[in-house]
């Protein structure tokens, strides 16, 4: 069973007046089949955690470890992490001019699976996954994220999650900018992957809204660059009622 | 009603992009001026010093003397082979042959130097009404040294032909190429510059497009230290059509320059220009000048030109200058667009985060960038070869 272990993770970024520490000792264990919601106010470092795990070059790991089934994730390049089973659904997916969605998906699936998927089954697989996410088939011929609406970008991210079948999926603010219909469609996509029991999900969000569709097993409150409280789904209900105030006062958050 | 659109470039890079679309913002390139100097005689052109409008982007010191008269022709510098289907006349003619210089005069010092210095002109003549099923192939292989060349390709009325010109090896070459396209004829020319890294190549390509004739030019520039091509189109009669496509890939230190001029001097002619380039490495430099002049008499003109560049790394530079001069409002359409984008770290991160290794990610982006143009060219038998060329270039250079 796949397990992601984050131990005492410290991360900084280059700022104008030298490096600034954003993550200040994150500890978290995510196992295959589990869903962890990470909730926190803006600027608490949630997204930094997501991007650090995926290996974005902007972030420098100053101490701590991240292991996936005992393998050192931090020693891997970005693409090696993806091939090891880490997937990041981005809040702001990037436009890639000149590369069609279908070409991108196939290249990616080939890299992750270690061999090119058989064309016939692949076409069917993509078609079905797109239909499930209520995506127009013409979408496949557009350039990656170019001119996509907010909802289309998020569907496209979850489409990749469904096709790439990661061991650990990190969803960074996947709910932001979605209307209720789109949120439902996207959440159903995430749930289809979760129901396989083969993915550990790290759901990063500012709002509790998405938790109505994706039920977490654990809820963590993130403030000031670390996890300050953990509990079950009931913790989300408390946050819904009381907000983050009790966690951010006294300068816990930046 | 004329539909005039101007889309200035989107500059999102550390490279330099200059887009002259706004009247008065930049000085008028000499090419677009009707009184621009043109002459067969090199003595009529002063030696350029580099600040002239048409030379300001070119590294003159790397032209190996083509511009100042110091480059003396050496024998055996290039080897030219022509293969053509039966019925096509392939010969060499003296400079007093009526067809030599018929498309137009040289318009800069290097082209005039080539005209003043070549020995015999190559002539390929496709008889009228001929429908060639096989392309005419001209291979120009540089064997080291300096050469001045002149090539005339003549296509008789209502004939159809495809010409593929390939440049390989190492040479310092200045040349004029003329395309004389008869009424109702169709000529497609693919010119591939696949030189070694040390070659210097400057050429003027002048097409005289006959009444209701079609000219399609595909320029593919990959190799060479300095390549400076000057494709020009002039219409000899109404209803002519020119499609000018180009594709270039500049690596570290390479200077690849394409200066186009479409002279709409005749009513009811069309032109469409689309050039795309990718650059990578320190001091990779691409220059694209797109001059279109619609003269007062050229009513019913329809023209569009586009240049797109993709910067793959820092340290590369693009100068893209579309320039449209319109002297009549009675046209169908006129527009231009230029944009330079950058393959940036965020795109790389996104693709890598989907398991795609960095070198493959770059190749994916570049291949996609060019594929659109290659499809637009609409020559299925050449598409595959072009994609192969791009792939080979990518394999060799993008890592």
From TrEMBL, chain A:
<dbReference type="Pfam" id="PF00005">
    <property type="entry name" value="ABC_tran"/>
</dbReference>
<dbReference type="InterPro" id="IPR003593">
    <property type="entry name" value="AAA+_ATPase"/>
</dbReference>
<protein>
    <submittedName>
        <fullName>Fe-S cluster assembly ATP-binding protein</fullName>
    </submittedName>
</protein>
<dbReference type="GO" id="GO:0016887">
    <property type="term" value="F:ATP hydrolysis activity"/>
</dbReference>
<comment type="similarity">
    <text>Belongs to the ABC transporter superfamily. Ycf16 family.</text>
</comment>
<dbReference type="InterPro" id="IPR003439">
    <property type="entry name" value="ABC_transporter-like_ATP-bd"/>
</dbReference>
<dbReference type="GO" id="GO:0005524">
    <property type="term" value="F:ATP binding"/>
</dbReference>
<feature type="domain" description="ABC transporter">
    <location>
        <begin position="4"/>
        <end position="249"/>
    </location>
</feature>
<dbReference type="InterPro" id="IPR027417">
    <property type="entry name" value="P-loop_NTPase"/>
</dbReference>
<keyword id="KW-0067">ATP-binding</keyword>
<dbReference type="InterPro" id="IPR010230">
    <property type="entry name" value="FeS-cluster_ATPase_SufC"/>
</dbReference>
<keyword id="KW-0547">Nucleotide-binding</keyword>
From TrEMBL, chain B:
<comment type="similarity">
    <text>Belongs to the iron-sulfur cluster assembly SufBD family.</text>
</comment>
<dbReference type="InterPro" id="IPR000825">
    <property type="entry name" value="SUF_FeS_clus_asmbl_SufBD_core"/>
</dbReference>
<feature type="domain" description="SUF system FeS cluster assembly SufBD core">
    <location>
        <begin position="140"/>
        <end position="369"/>
    </location>
</feature>
<dbReference type="GO" id="GO:0016226">
    <property type="term" value="P:iron-sulfur cluster assembly"/>
</dbReference>
<feature type="compositionally biased region" description="Low complexity">
    <location>
        <begin position="1"/>
        <end position="16"/>
    </location>
</feature>
<feature type="region of interest" description="Disordered">
    <location>
        <begin position="1"/>
        <end position="22"/>
    </location>
</feature>
<dbReference type="InterPro" id="IPR055346">
    <property type="entry name" value="Fe-S_cluster_assembly_SufBD"/>
</dbReference>
<protein>
    <submittedName>
        <fullName>Fe-S cluster assembly protein SufD</fullName>
    </submittedName>
</protein>
<dbReference type="InterPro" id="IPR037284">
    <property type="entry name" value="SUF_FeS_clus_asmbl_SufBD_sf"/>
</dbReference>
<dbReference type="InterPro" id="IPR011542">
    <property type="entry name" value="SUF_FeS_clus_asmbl_SufD"/>
</dbReference>
<dbReference type="Pfam" id="PF01458">
    <property type="entry name" value="SUFBD_core"/>
</dbReference>
């Amino acid at each position: 069973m796949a397990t992601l272990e984050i131990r005492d993770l410290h991360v900084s970024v280059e700022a104008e007046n030298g490096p600034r520490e954003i993550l200040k000792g994150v500890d978290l264990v995510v196992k295959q089949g589990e869903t962890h919601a990470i909730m926190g106010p803006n600027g608490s470092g949630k997204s930094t955690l997501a991007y650090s795990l995926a290996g974005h070059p902007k972030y420098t790991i100053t101490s701590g470890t991240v292991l996936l089934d005992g393998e050192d994730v931090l020693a891997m390049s970005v693409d090696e992490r993806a091939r090891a089973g880490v997937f990041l659904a981005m809040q702001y997916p990037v436009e890639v001019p000149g590369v069609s969605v279908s070409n991108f998906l196939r290249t990616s699936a080939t890299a992750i699976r270690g061999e090119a998927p058989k064309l016939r089954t692949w076409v069917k697989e993509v078609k079905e996954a797109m239909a499930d996410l209520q995506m127009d088939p013409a979408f496949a011929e557009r350039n990656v994220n170019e001119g996509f609406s907010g909802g289309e970008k998020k569907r496209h991210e979850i489409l990749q999650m469904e096709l790439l079948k990661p061991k650990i999926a990190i969803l960074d603010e996947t709910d932001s900018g979605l209307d209720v219909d789109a949120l439902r469609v996207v959440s159903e996509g995430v749930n289809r992957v979760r129901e396989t029991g083969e993915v550990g999900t790290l759901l990063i969000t500012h709002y509790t809204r998405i938790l109505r569709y994706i039920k977490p097993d654990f809820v963590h409150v993130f403030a000031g660059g670390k996890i300050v409280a953990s509990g079950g789904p009931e913790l989300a209900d408390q946050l819904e009622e009381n907000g983050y105030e009790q966690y951010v006062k006294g300068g816990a958050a930046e | 009603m004329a539909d005039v659109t101007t889309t200035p470039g989107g500059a999102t890079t550390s490279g330099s992009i200059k887009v002259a679309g706004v009247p008065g913002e930049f000085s008028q390139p000499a090419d677009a001026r009707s009184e621009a100097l043109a002459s067969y005689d090199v003595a009529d052109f002063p030696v350029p010093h580099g600040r002239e409008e048409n030379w300001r982007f070119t590294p003159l010191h790397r032209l190996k003397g083509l511009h100042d008269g110091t480059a003396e022709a050496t024998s055996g510098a290039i080897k030219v082979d022509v293969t053509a289907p039966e019925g096509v006349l392939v010969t060499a003619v003296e400079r007093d042959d009526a067809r030599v210089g018929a498309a137009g005069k040289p318009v800069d010092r290097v082209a005039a130097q080539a005209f003043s210095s070549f020995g015999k002109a190559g002539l390929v003549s496709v008889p009228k009404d001929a429908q060639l099923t096989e392309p005419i192939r001209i291979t120009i292989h540089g064997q080291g040294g300096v050469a001045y060349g002149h090539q005339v390709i003549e296509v008789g009325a209502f004939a159809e032909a495809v010409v593929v010109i390939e440049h390989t090896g190492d040479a310092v070459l200045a040349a004029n190429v003329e395309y004389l396209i008869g009424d109702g004829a169709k000529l497609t020319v693919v010119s591939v510059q696949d030189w070694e890294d040390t070659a210097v190549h400057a050429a003027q390509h002048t097409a005289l497009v006959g009444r209701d004739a079609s000219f399609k030019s595909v320029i593919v520039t990959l190799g060479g230290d300095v390549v400076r091509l000057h494709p020009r189109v002039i219409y000899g009669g109404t209803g002519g059509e020119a499609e000018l496509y180009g594709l270039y890939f500049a690596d570290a230190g390479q200077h690849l320059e394409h200066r186009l001029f479409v002279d709409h001097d005749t009513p009811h002619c069309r032109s469409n220009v689309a050039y795309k380039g990718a650059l990578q490495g320190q001091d990779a430099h691409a220059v694209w000048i797109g001059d279109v002049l619609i003269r007062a008499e050229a009513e019913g003109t329809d023209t569009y030109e586009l240049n797109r560049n993709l910067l793959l790394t820092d340290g590369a530079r693009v100068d893209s200058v579309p320039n449209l001069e319109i002297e009549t409002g009675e046209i169908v359409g006129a527009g231009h667009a230029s944009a330079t984008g950058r393959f940036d770290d965020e795109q790389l991160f996104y693709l890598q985060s989907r398991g795609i290794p960095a070198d493959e990610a770059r190749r994916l982006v570049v291949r996609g960038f060019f594929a659109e143009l290659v499809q637009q060219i609409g020559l299925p038998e050449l598409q595959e070869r072009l994609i192969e060329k791009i792939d080979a270039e990518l394999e060799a250079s993008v890592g």
